[in-house]
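queue> holo job accepted (flavin-adenine dinucleotide)
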Amino acid sequence: MNELQRPHVVVVGGGPAGLAAAETLAARSCKVTVVDRMPSLGRKFLMAGRSGLNLTNNESLSDSDNGGFLRRYGNAASWLGSSVRAFPPEKLVNWAGELGQPCYSGGGGRVFPKAMKASPLLRAWLQRLGAAGVSVQSGSRWIGWSEDGALLFEHRDAVASMTPDATILALGGASWSRLGSDARWVGALVERGVDMTPFRPANCGFVAAWSDTFRERFAGTPLKRIAVSFEGVALRGEAVVTARGIEGGVIYALSATLRDAIDRGGSTILHLDLRPDLDEAALARRLASVRPRESLSNRLRKAAQLPPVAAALLREVGEPPKDPVSLARLLKAVPVSLTATDSLDRAISVAGGVAASACDERFMLTAIPGVFVCGEMLDWEAPTGGYLLQACFSTGRAAGEGAARWLETRGLLREQDSGLYPHPS
Ligand SMILES: Cc1cc2nc3c(=O)[nH]c(=O)nc-3n(C[C@H](O)[C@H](O)[C@H](O)COP(=O)(O)OP(=O)(O)OC[C@H]3O[C@@H](n4cnc5c(N)ncnc54)[C@H](O)[C@@H]3O)c2cc1C
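queue> job finished
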């Protein structure tokens, strides 16, 4: 195929989903241009690597007593399942290894590159994409379509257009907008009749009505080795007090159910166990061994090695009891009233986006043939643990493969069996 015969595909959004689509299409001999509104690509991916890039999870794909990988996507599992099966965690790990980033499994099946960071992986990936002929146009914001169907971009105060043979939209979610994904594209899709589910925060923090004294003194303080319980689910981990409320790993893990409960009732109560490794009776015995005349903070420190934030948390819910049994009971279940999710922009990821009903099985928008969607802009959510990036890589590759198949059916690309979709008969 010479240069003129190669179909041109524009991928809008250079995060992991868009780049995965670009890689798939370049491998199918398409001419690929990745356009991004930011000055450089993969900014959220780089941010994800700041605290250890949890690339995927080695949990088995199929359902199991523990849940199984695909069940982490809830109702969206049936939608995303074929893409994750086609490009499962082991393929993602091999792919990272090919780019010089071998991975290892940490606790809870979480898989990380040994380097922990995203930067060496992204650098090697962009180099390989460049070598495969993928071109990048950064600093261009996609703003919609012209009347004759051309893609419109704002670039340095001017509007430019492109008319590719197929388009991949990989625009990300609606959080951490300073990294690129600001969801300002929603109107352009709604105008073309694409079903959208409103964005909501996922893996997010919550608002708690802290007193001014507590907020000023303890915002930013970690709550280490605690357990939280909600609606019969108890999880151990860490949280952090914020000026607005509470956030952190163990809170994110419960955030979907907490968010839904707040949506239903306006507020909800989360219980914190500040010494999950001691049962109530053992804790009461320890508290009884410290002189009651000691300050609450001293009693908690001497009897249970708890930091000052523990006593302050108890005071947030009322006058703490003095007798050891009641005090132990409270320490094992401090009620924290949550009144709202923290802002959408602060959430690690989002729920909502392009609805499953808007797409066919190739991730093509049924309202706009030739336009494919992937990554976090789709309406799914998952907990942290590597499930977010895995779905972005898998749906990105599936959308790329879907676009290649669509180009084949239009005679623009030679047929090649990817094994992902049945060939049209
Ligand atoms: C702090 C943090 C830590 C995280 N850690 C992890 C982790 O360890 N493991 C994990 O699985 N997930 C993690 N995530 C989530 C993960 O990074 C995202 O789910 C993933 O990056 C989404 O990929 P995407 O390609 O769909 O979108 P994005 O990475 O958001 O990329 C979308 C791209 O589209 C561009 N764009 C948007 N609108 C336009 C427009 N109109 N025109 C042109 N370009 C546009 C943006 O500039 C951006 O580059 C983390 C997220 C955060 C915020």
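queue> Residues 421-425 have pLDDT under 50 and may be disordered.
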